[in-house]
Amino acid sequence: MPLIPNQNEQDAARCAREFKDFIKVIKNLDQKTSASTITKVKANFQLLETKAKSILAIIKTDAERNKLSEINNYYFRYFLEQVSRYNQYFNEIANINDQRNPDTTHPVLAFAAKDILANAAITPIKDDLLVQSEPVKMTVTVKSKDKGDIFKPHFEIMEKGTKHHYYRAKTTPDDQLHQDLPHYMEANKQIFLATQGENVLSLIKGDWNHGSDAYFQVADRERHGIEKALFETALTNIKEGQSLSDEQLTVLEKGKYYRYPIPIRFMVKPPAEEKEEKASAEKPDHKITHVGHAAEILTMNSTVPLTLSIDPVHYQSGTGGLIAPAAKLFYDRHTAPAMTTDSYPKMNVVIISHNHHDHMCPCSLQEGFAHSNTLFIVPKGDAKHMKSSAFALKNANVVEFNSWDDSAEIELTNAEGVSSKYEVRALPANHASNRGPTDFYESLYMGYMVRDLSKNQVVLFTGDTAVLSDQHFEQLEKYLVDNNLFLQSACIAHGPDRPRKWMECTHQSTADAIAMHARFNMMNAAVYAKQQNKKVEDLTFQELKNVACHGIGYHQGCYRLGVLTNQDVNTTILRMLATLKSVADVAIKDINAEFLKDNIFYHFMDEFERIGVLDTIKSYQKLSGTLNAGQVARLVTSHLTVPVPGAGVDFQAKTPHPGFTFNYESLMQNRDPNVKTFDPNVAAYDYFAAHLFPKYFMPKVKTRELIELGLNIYLQRPRKTYAASKAPQVQAFLASLPQIAEANLVAELGKFYSSIFPPQDNGIRDEGHLHTMITLLGGLIQFPEFRKQFQDRHNELRGIKSTSVAKHSKFADKSSTTLLAGQVEVREHKHQPRS
Predict the structure, then answer these.
(1) Hey, is 720 helix, strand or coil?
(2) 82 Cβ contact partners less than 8 Å away, ≥ 6 residues apart
(3) Given the DSSP bridges, would you call strands 648-651 and 92-98 parallel, antiparallel or unpaired?
């Protein structure tokens, strides 16, 4: 049923909008403001304060009546967000002490209206339902190399009177990636040509940005368009206090592409005697909310919580200035952010990884954080951008990190004098920088580690990065082991992947990201082994799993950077998992490229994906021979999430990490999600499901017969329904089948696939009909859970009630691997009941 707001909810939304407008007013107050204007502002505040307290009382009464511990009502949440945003204007940066240079002075830029607000008796709204009722003071101490050098430094080279920052020396051995200006400019040129070449191809086909070579494949584009429209109108309706339709509620709670963001939880305070017990039992260590691309919100839940925004970008790549029209044309957003800039919660710190336009956006920073009580941490060379007229960050407090050994200790103190201390530390990134055509490498680039100093757990953000050197991985591990620190969670850059030849100097692939996650897990294993006085190689799989890092895949699903489609990240992970799960019982010590050459799923992968699988296995080979490929796959499905916009993950012992679902059917891109009855002109997967199913489930069908059936169905499909037939090659392979031993059939099918579809590291993968059929056959032979999905799709097309057939299959999987049920899930946002 549609959700129709009652009068209280409408009043809450209206009051939220009034607070939003009031924030704009107080941001513009200064010493030149007239006395009469200040008098009007004061009177306006008194009315707002009265309304706010009345609504807060209603929300509490409603929560008590319905025995709620958290406010999840959409309209009430929007009200609480805006009041919390208002309260943050009373925060204060008390001091910035830069210890890196005794001569360095860091004057704190005060909020211009601070004294005016105090004299006009304009104060925070005090209520324990809000995430912050009293002003918080921040003290910042900037350090470098406080315990000796942690990381090998970047290379600083003076060129034409300007200092440039390189990850590698400009002259490197021939077998390593070069990182110099000509190479980087050529890479950008080739990436641009590849990206726009695919867009032009779509335009020629008369289907701009929606063709088979476009960002969204046919099976995704319609659903995404519908969800995006519903999501954006739903957010608007919440702010306006208007009704939400059934369709809007479905998207907000469990959309495929969008979900309602919950960066900060508004908890109902329990009675005093239960407060401490409840807090320790229910409060997560931290929460990460994915806004989109590389934009994340991190909340660290110590006594005085710290909230950070990482690389907030809400618009096209390249807002503002002369490049905006071209950026809009060539690098527009394909997916919307999870929230608008006026919905950011109270924010203490904004950290920027580097100055590329898809990570440092002036419009987003102006709208979300243009006030003095936010601390901005940026890489060396980027303070000048933050303070420029283009960014218009009035009175911004900006700290530059000059090296990958820099850190900032942040102490937050509330009105009662209670303090919490945190640390933001730089991390090496293998990347580049520039905001225009003449400032290449003039700024540094980095990732970050954030830590609650009362705990031994670190949250890591890689920033944009190519694969780090072994030396930097080893230095990070040494730092963690020496300081007894675990990587509790890590936002890891996943791509863009293609064209790999040009991307690899600045961006690691999705497959590299899986290997990085494995290395992080092994770092935690080293810390744990030291604690337990054990050798890493003696740890069990369960011990490794217990201390594994929670990974969040980001830097995907937003812009078309390179030859990229929306499905690239997920399908790469699925192909890697299929390879691992197909040899689930094999010890990883026995797996190498030679072993995998006969694996059908290994042949489905492109070269960079094969490298990622082997690098992942290599990382875990430090453990004893008891660890097998199936367990490595389980570490991905249990400890890695690729979130949709707005998906938030709470990290606490009693709430499992959502993980990544191994759903082999998702590899079938050539399908029509809207077809419910059989049509001979449907997309390939649906056509094959309708034609192969009756014959496939005839009694005594063997692998050889299944392959023959499938390939003959491919050959018999009317030619007008698809282009570029591979019929001659298929006929030749069918003719060779009788000479192939039964034990070699699956391997030879994989080799046939790779002969038809050689690795496409630098271009769009062929997702045509033969690709679909061979991928389909591999799944039917190997995975019983896919056979069930295949039958369900056939029954859906034919209007037949679904029944399980996996147990009757002649191709039952003998391994112990099982499917993790459901899609990637987050805590559903339920509209709370009311009287």
Answers:
(1) helix
(2) 16, 17, 19, 20, 23, 342
(3) unpaired
For the four alpha carbons of 718, 721, 727 and 730, in that order, the dihedral sign comes to negative
Rounded Cα distance between 292 and 337, Å, is 5
Q: Which two tokens stand for residue 54?
A: 């009345």
pLDDT one-digit tens code per residue, 209-251: 444 456 777 667 888 889 999 999 999 999 999 999 999 999 9
Q: How far apart are CA 394 and CA 109, in angstroms?
A: 9
CA distance 27 to 7: 30
Paired with 446 in beta bridges are 428
Predicted local distance difference test score (pLDDT) of residue 567? 86
How many angstroms separate the CA atoms of 63 and 269, rounded? 10
Structure tokens at 278: 């409840």
Taking the model in full, what pTM does it have?
A: 0.91
Note the helical H segments in 535-627: 541-546, 568-582, 593-596, 600-604, 607-620
- Cα separation of 252 and 258, whole Å? 7
Distances (CA, A) of 380 to 355, 369, 403: 10, 21, 7
State the Cα–Cα distance between residues 497 and 565, nearest whole angstrom. 10
What are the residues whose beta carbons fall under 8 Å from the beta carbon of 803, sequence distance 6 or more? 791, 795
Amino acid at 592: N
Report residue 325's pLDDT band, with 50, 70 and 90 as the boundaries.
confident
Three-state DSSP class for 10? Answer: helix
Residue with token string 């400032």: 439
Q: Which distant-in-sequence residues (6+ apart) come within 8 Å of 753 by Cβ? A: 600, 603, 604, 771, 774
| pLDDT for residue 565 | 83
Cα–Cα distance measured from residue 433 to residue 357, given in angstroms and rounded to the nearest whole number: 10
DSSP 36-50: HHHHHHHHHHHHHHH
Contact present, 644 and 292 (Cβ < 8 Å): no
Contact 514, 573 (CB under 8 A): yes
Q: For 708-762, how does the pLDDT look when each residue is reduced to its tens digit (9 = 90+)?
A: 999 999 998 876 544 457 889 999 999 999 999 999 999 999 999 999 999 889 8
316 with 327: CB under 8 angstroms?
yes
The pLDDT value recorded for residue 296 is 96
How many residues does the structure list for the chain?
835
Nearest of 655, 661, 656, 629 to residue 642 by alpha carbon: 661
Q: Is the pLDDT of residue 803 over 70?
A: no
Residue 451 backbone phi and psi in degrees, to 5: -145, 135
The values of phi and psi at residue 308, to 5°, are -120, 150
- Give residue 680's pLDDT band: very low, low, confident or very high (50, 70, 90): low
